[in-house]
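tmp note - Magnesium transport protein CorA
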Amino acid sequence: MDTNEFFAPFRATADDGNSADAAVADNVGVENGEPAATTAQAPAKITANALGKTTSTATKQDGGKADRTPVWIDLLSPTPDEIHDIEERFGIEVPTREEMQEIELSSRLYDEEGALFMTVSVLTRATTDAPQTTAVTFILVKKTLITLRYADPVPFKTFIRRVKRSPSLANSAEAVLFGLLEQIVDRLADLMEQTATDLENLSNQVFASPEDIASDQDHRETLRQIGRTGNLSGKAKDSLLNLHRLGLFLSTQTRLKKDAKARLKVISRDIVSITEHANFIANKVTFLLDATLGMISLEQNNIIKIFSVAAAAFLPPTLIASIYGMNFEFMPELGWEFGYPVAIGLMILSAVLPLWYFKRKGWL
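out:
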């Protein structure tokens, strides 16, 4: 259970006697009011990690205020006590994990007493054989963005690293919100590009010559890869649909400034373009699946054809052998001196002639 708080960096003036960089250095990398050196010794998973916590120097620069409002509070698998503290602190009702899974639009995007609640599906574990989507809730209340999630997708890890390197990325709640959305969209774009490359390799594998070493003879691995790619593209489209709806919801909010709306417009255009690419990938997945199943059907037909030719070729010899195996009392051929070799010759000839005919017709 992690609760990370991010504060906007200070902007030092000339009267402070310190540069803005020094102020930022005092403002970032402090855990629960302790120096940064203590934070460096903490384990990778930090509980109640208050990045950018106010130090004594920062308090002076902030006009002596003891507390500052964080621009971003990131709740990762929070405990009931942590959720209760957030609700008491901001006067909101945090949606439960079950409510986050609801698919109706009114339960995912709504305005409650000036606080914006936005739940989207974010792709996670995309590089594994079992990609998943996880619900992430963005709560924009006053000057703070609260994110509630029960998984740790790559975009959040990446954005947190970027904020630690460049604290100016978290100078406002809206900046953090759009930064996270851009990171999610960029991650989806990278996945779609990689998926397109994988599909190209699969296409070459499906249509490879049977003598080619790269061909998959039984197509089991090809079908598995096509299924994984189709699953990934489907979950990516679901995430893009959620992001598109979130963009439409934000575009109706008057609280956003002009530059924020311009940034939202760029994100929306990227979502539309990636969605078109995801549709192309879905169509190609369908095409490759049909082509693979067609190849399997052709190979099965070839096997059945061999058995059919063998049955047709050995039917006349079987008929001849059956006739002379009836053991009737009056069968003149049974007492003939050359009856046996003639019967053997007829059986061989009746088998060779159909095979020659099938070969001439190109059926073999």
